[in-house]
């Protein structure tokens, strides 16, 4: 998609400091953070919304979800629990889908939002 901002970031047409990158995914800090830590995990392939995903995207979606706690830990908002009890730290994971879901950029992305309280993430 030539006019898609996240395609341009993935293609390095817009310089953005990646916190993670591989053949399938890129992750970078949100330009307008809703919390002390707020980054986006974005597939390099253009998919408009979560509702456009099918079985063929299951592995990609799984990879995005499994990357979230790893990067959250690196970025200082990981969740730690010693023995299955309630631990410390933590983060929200969020896909906004469509106008009523509050989606602004129509290129699939997973928000990871966290950091030390106090903050009240409403997103
Ligand atoms: P949505 O509402 O679509 O789920 O969220 C899109 C997110 O992308 C917003 O939180 C917004 O701040 C972020 N964003 C939009 N444009 C850019 C950009 O050019 N660079 C970065 N790093 N984040 C962006
Ligand atoms: Zn795109």
Automatic annotation (TrEMBL):
PANTHER family cross-referenced by the UniProt entry: HISTIDINE TRIAD HIT PROTEIN (PTHR23089)
What broad taxonomic lineage does this protein's source fall under? Bacteria, Pseudomonadati, Pseudomonadota, Betaproteobacteria, Burkholderiales
Domain of life the protein comes from: Bacteria
Could you tell me which Pfam families the record lists for this protein? DcpS_C
Q: Where is this motif: Histidine triad motif?
A: 107-111
Protein name (Swiss-Prot/TrEMBL):
Histidine triad nucleotide-binding protein
InterPro entries associated with the record? Histidine_triad_CS (IPR019808), Histidine_triad_HIT (IPR001310), HIT-like (IPR011146), HIT-like_sf (IPR036265)
> Where does the UniProt annotation place the signal sequence?
none
HIT domain residues: 5-123
């Amino acid at each position: 998609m030539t006019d898609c901002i996240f395609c341009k970031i993935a293609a390095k047409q817009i310089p953005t400091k990646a916190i993670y990158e591989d053949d399938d995914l890129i992750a970078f800090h949100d330009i307008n953070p809703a919390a002390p830590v707020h980054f986006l995990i974005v597939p390099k392939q253009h998919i408009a919304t979560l509702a456009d995903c099918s079985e063929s995207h299951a592995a990609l979606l799984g990879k995005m979800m499994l990357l979230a706690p790893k990067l959250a830990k690196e970025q200082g908002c990981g969740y730690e629990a010693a023995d299955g009890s309630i631990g410390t730290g933590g983060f929200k994971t969020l896909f906004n889908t469509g106008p009523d879901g509050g989606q602004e950029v129509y290129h699939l992305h997973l928000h990871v939002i966290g950091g030390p309280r106090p903050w009240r993430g409403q997103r």
